[in-house]
User: Fold this.
Amino acid sequence: MSEHEPGWLDGNAIAGLLEDVFGGDMTRVPRGCGSCGTHAPVAAHRVHLGAGAVLRCPACGDVALQVVEAGDRLVVRFSGTWTLVRPGARRRRPTGTSASTPRLRFGR
Ligand SMILES: [Zn+2]
Assistant:
């Protein structure tokens, strides 16, 4: 028996899609809902699949993310507050920065 209501999957359902877009695992990325203030990782959100994928807040159902294929493009639209932590920032340091430049950190 599934603990989920019919019609949606958890955020892990679009893990591969988000990894294609962002180049890393996004399921643990925290997102703050602009409507109810809930902070939850992407994996805890609800995914509705149709013409595209819609990620919704697990508490209030507000839209968190929309992913739609448009021709040969993938269009991603965010809502709310997202905290992205990208491992390997040191290797990707922009040219022209010194070794004393603080490492980029997002979120916690
Ligand atoms: Zn919410």
